Amino acid sequence: MALIVMKFGGSSVGSTERMGRVAQRIVEKKRQGDQVVVVVSAMGDTTDDLIDKSKEINESPPAREMDMLLTTGEQISVALLSMAIHKLGQEAKSVTGWQAGIRTEAVHGKARITDISPDRILRWLNEENVVIVAGFQGMSDDGEITTLGRGGSDTTAVALAAAIKADVCEIYTDVDGIYSTDPRVVQNARKLSAISYDEMLELANLGAAVLHPRAVEYAKHYNVNLVVRSSFTQNEGTSVREEAAMEQGVVVRGIAYDKNVARISILGVADVPGVLAQIFGALAAAGIDVDMIVQSGVQNSKADFSFTLSLTDRSRAMDVIAGIQSVIPYDEATYEENLVKVSIVGAGMVSNPGVAARMFEAISKLGVSIKMVSTSEIKVSCVIAAEPVQDVVRALHTAYGLDTADSVFVGGPQDRR
Ligand code: ADP
Ligand code: ASP
Ligand code: MG
C-alpha cells in the first residue's frame, strides 16, 4: 500500500465529463489499495475568467478581495470532484486549503506556505476516504485567505506530499511529461524520462509553466518523489529527482522562454558610488524584483543603466524611478516591452566551454539581435524581441541536438487561453 498525492490541473478538470474521467482514475488507484490525497485546480479557464470579471468592476482591485474571489474556483472543483467520486461508490471528502491545515505568510497573491497540520487529512485517509484538497490556497495566522501565485496548485500538492510523507506526488496535466522544451512550440521536442531538481527549478523560474517553481523548491528541499504525467493517457511520465541519479553528459537539458519581461533604461546617471544601491534600493522597497542589470557607456562622469523586470511591474517601476529623480538626477528614463527571455538549462554546461557561444550563434543566424545576457552555472539567458521567439526556440533546440526524429508529443487538447 502506498500513500499517493495526485494533482490535477485546470484542463484535466475542464468539464464535468473530464471531471468524471479524473474521478475514475482516482477510484482505480484507491481500489488498488493505495491511500489517495487529491489536489485539484479550478476548472479550465475559471481563474482567468474571474480575473476578467474583477477588472470589469475595478481596474485595480484590492489584493485581499482578489484572493477571496480566486479561491472560489478551486472550491467549486473539489466539491464537484468529490461528488463524482461518490457516484462511483467511493467515500471522499473535499476540503479547502485552510481546512487542510495549510498556513501561509500574510501576503495576498503570492503567499508562501509556512506550515501544514495534516491531522484531519490523515484521519480521513485512515477512515478509507479519498481526501480532495483545493489547490493554490491557504490561510495566514490572522485568519486571512491567501493564494500561492498562478500555477500554485502544484505547490499545494508537493507541500502536502512532504507533510504527510507521501511515497509519490504525481502531477497530472495536459502533456505527458516534462519535455526538452514546450511541446506545443517545438513539434519534435524530446520527452525526458528524468530531470534534476536544479534543472527543473531553473526551467520553471525561466518560464516553463509545466511546474510551479515553488513546487520544485519544496520537492528538492524535502526530497519528494515527484512525477509529471498526462491525465489523458496512461503513458509513463517524467521523474524529477536528485542529480546523482541522472543521465550524465547532457550539456543542455531544456529550453524555456518567458514573455513576462520588460526592460527599463536610465540614461545619463551621475557615475558616483552608491547610485546603484539607491536606485535598486528604492525599487526593492516598492517590492519590485529586478532581474538582469547592465551598466554601459560611462561618458563625462555619467553612465547608462538598463535592467529587466516583470512586465507586470513595469508601470510601478517607472513611477518609482520618476519619484527618485530629484535625489538621483538623470537625463531620461525609457522602457521597452514586447520582449522575451529565452534560456538554455543544463547541469552539464558548467564543464563545457562554448555553450553560450553556440547559443549566440544560433540566434544571430536568424538575424535576431540579443539585447541582454545573463548566465549561471547551469543556464544562459538572452533577452530578444518577442516576435521571433518560436523560431529561436526551435533553432536552439536543433543547435543543441535535442530534436527527436519524429514528433512524439501525445497530450490532451489545450483548450485554455
Ligand atoms: P496545468 O493546468 O495542468 O497545471 P499548465 O498549463 O500549468 O497545466 O502546464 C502544462 C503546460 O506547460 C503544457 O500544456 C505546455 O504547453 C507547457 N510547457 C512549457 N514548457 C514545458 C516543458 N518543458 N515540458 C512540458 N510542458 C511544458
Ligand atoms: N487556478 C490557479 C491558476 O490558474 C492555480 C493553478 O491552477 O495551479 O493559476
Ligand atoms: Mg500549472
How is this structure best described in words?
- By secondary structure, this protein is α/β, with parallel strands linked by helices.
- The protein is 32% helix and 26% strand.
- The protein is built from 11 helices and 20 strands.
- The mean pLDDT is 93.
- The structure holds adenosine-5'-diphosphate (ADP), aspartic acid (ASP) and magnesium ion.
- The site of magnesium ion has 4 residues, from loops.
How many structurally independent domains? 2
Strand order of the biggest β-sheet: 3-6-2-1-9-11-12-10
Please name the fourth-level CATH homologous superfamily of the largest domain: Acetylglutamate kinase-like
| Parts with pLDDT < 50 across at least 5 consecutive residues | none
Q: Which architecture of the largest domain per CATH?
A: 3-Layer(aba) Sandwich
Concise overview:
This protein has 417 residues and is of the alpha/beta class.
